[in-house]
């Protein structure tokens, strides 16, 4: 098990590039199950979650070739069967293999996906969606068996918005020649990017507000596609710039992080933006804020933890309301250990009083975004910080220590 050692505080300066979106790349790799030919994806981050997904499909007979951030995928010869249960349990996003494997082979069995500690993240909405389409779902302890013969209904309406649930039905429907409608669908940029990928391959997809209609085809064609930039990585680096230096963040779409930039304006954080870049200056004073997470275009739950560090440096009392996951405030205990003044009101709300000087400590990454958050906190803290379970951060941030070192950060992997 690796750890990061960081010596602070750090004044960072320079330019950092955002890589491809983890949550788009993983879904397009899954979509390649439906394509009878070689798919070429550009701007694919080399991160742990994608490495695991590739391993799952390689064990089923798939072939992959990576050259930098370009990934060639050939899944024509994958075998009918079930994905490796241990790998599925280690990674939450593996659930999106369900839709394409079921569409192509008519049956699939998976254990309950795992991989993070931010909440139960049940797949009940996935199960209900497939049941609504007439797919037989059998549950036994920690395992789910899906069997598909024909579509009984052509509409899914989610009781609560679900990103991966929307993507699973979108993937499944893109292989059906009968039209399927998704209501109360997620419209995150990664969902839109996946839809564009599938449209380029031959599926007919229309998105109107939160209604998605799909008419697929059995012979989706091989394509080349460039994955969108990772908006969560872009937001993470933007917050880092506001805390520890003047940074230029490149290869991003500022429109994808508009909710964060609105908060920056309210907090007095100066920035400039271009078509694909953002320049952030560390302000002399940061005003407090009231952050409430919500589905896109609301404030992203994945940026709520890094925002928590920023609020420790704001003058006054700030509040966080986490509306998506029940355990996403766990990282606050790590910040408390580093000297932050935090009052947890309930499992979904907390108050942060600042500004406070943070101090180095020995802490552990609980999940991907919490790990990145503690990394940011360590960079602005006094003294040495050790962050254990560094591999959790590797799930979503490629070679993060090397990229930070180029900005002047004192960090190493042990």
Quickly name the level 1 CATH class of the largest domain: Alpha Beta
Number of strands: 23
Strand content: 25-35%
CATH topology of the largest domain: UDP-n-acetylglucosamine1-carboxyvinyl-transferase, Chain
Sum up the overall morphology in one term. globular
Could you list the spans in which at least 5 consecutive residues all have pLDDT below 50? Answer: none
Give an overview of the whole structure.
By secondary structure, the protein is α+β, with helices and mostly antiparallel strands. The chain has 2 domains: 3-19 and 229-413, Enolpyruvate transferase domain (UDP-n-acetylglucosamine1-carboxyvinyl-transferase, Chain, Alpha-beta prism), CATH 3.65.10.10; 22-226, Enolpyruvate transferase domain (UDP-n-acetylglucosamine1-carboxyvinyl-transferase, Chain), CATH 3.65.10. 31% of the residues lie in helices and 26% in strands. It is built from 14 helices and 23 strands. The strands form 6 sheets. Strands 21-22-1-23 form a 4-stranded mixed β-sheet. It has a 4-stranded mixed β-sheet with strand order 2-14-16-15, covered by helices on one side. A 4-stranded mixed β-sheet has the order 4-5-3-13, covered by helices on one side. Helix 1 packs parallel to helix 7, helix 4 runs parallel beside helix 6 (163-173) and helix 10 (304-311) packs parallel to helix 12 (368-380).
Which secondary structure elements does this structure contain, and how are they paired or packed?
Blueprint: E1 3-8, E2 12-17, H1 22-31, E3 38-42, H2 48-59, E4 63-67, E5 70-74, H3 85-89, H4 98-105, E6 107-111, H5 124-132, E7 136-140, E8 143-147, E9 155-157, H6 163-173, E10 180-183, H7 189-201, E11 204-208, E12 211-215, E13 224-226, H8 231-244, E14 245-250, H9 258-267, E15 271-273, E16 277-280, E17 290-292, H10 304-311, E18 316-321, H11 331-337, E19 341-346, E20 349-354, E21 362-364, H12 368-380, E22 383-388, H13 391-394, H14 400-405, E23 410-413
Parallel strand pairs: 2-14, 3-13, 9-10, 17-18, 21-22
Antiparallel strand pairs: 1-22, 1-23, 3-5, 4-5, 6-8, 7-8, 10-12, 11-12, 14-16, 15-16, 18-20, 19-20
């Amino acid at each position: 098990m690796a750890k990061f050692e960081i010596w602070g505080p750090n004044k960072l300066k320079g330019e950092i590039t955002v890589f491809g979106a983890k949550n788009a790349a993983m879904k397009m790799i899954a979509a390649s199950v439906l394509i009878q030919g070689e798919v070429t994806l550009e701007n694919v981050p080399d991160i742990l979650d994608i490495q695991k997904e590739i391993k799952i499909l390689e064990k089923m007979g798939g072939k992959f070739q990576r050259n930098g951030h370009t990934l060639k995928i050939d899944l024509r010869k994958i075998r009918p069967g079930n994905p490796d249960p241990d790998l599925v349990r280690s990674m939450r996003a593996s659930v999106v293999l369900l839709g394409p494997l079921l569409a192509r082979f008519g049956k699939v069995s998976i254990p309950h996906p795992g991989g993070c500690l931010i909440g139960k993240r049940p797949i009940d909405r996935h199960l209900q969606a497939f049941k609504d389409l007439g797919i037989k779902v059998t549950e036994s302890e920690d395992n789910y068996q899906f069997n598909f013969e024909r579509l009984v209904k052509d509409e899914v309406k989610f009781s609560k918005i679900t990103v991966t649930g929307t993507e699973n039905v979108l993937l499944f429907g893109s292989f059906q020649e009968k039209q399927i409608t998704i209501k109360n669908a997620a419209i995150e940029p990664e969902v839109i990017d996946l839809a564009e990928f599938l449209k380029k391959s031959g599926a007919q997809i229309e998105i109107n507000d939160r209604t998605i209609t799909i008419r697929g085809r059995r012979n989706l064609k091989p394509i080349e596609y460039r994955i969108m930039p990772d908006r969560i990585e872009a937001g993470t680096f933007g917050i880092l710039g506001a805390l520890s230096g003047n940074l230029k963040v490149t290869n991003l779409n500022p429109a994808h992080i508009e909710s964060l930039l609105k908060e920056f304006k309210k907090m007095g954080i100066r920035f400039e933006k271009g078509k694909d870049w953002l320049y952030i200056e560390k302000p002399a004073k940061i005003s407090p804020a009231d952050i409430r997470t919500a589905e896109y275009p609301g404030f992203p739950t994945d940026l709520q933890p890094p925002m928590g560090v920023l609020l420790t440096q704001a003058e006054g009392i700030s509040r966080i309301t986490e509306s998506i996951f029940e355990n996403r405030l766990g990282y606050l205990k790590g910040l408390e250990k580093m000297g932050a003044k935090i009052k947890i009101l309930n499992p979904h709300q907390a108050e942060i009083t600042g500004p406070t000087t943070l101090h180095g400590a020995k802490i552990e990454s609980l999940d991907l975004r919490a790990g990145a958050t503690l990394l940011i906190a360590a960079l602005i803290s006094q003294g040495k910080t050790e962050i254990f379970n560094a591999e959790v951060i590797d799930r979503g941030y490629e070679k993060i220590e090397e990229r930070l070192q180029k900005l002047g950060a004192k960090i190493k992997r042990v």
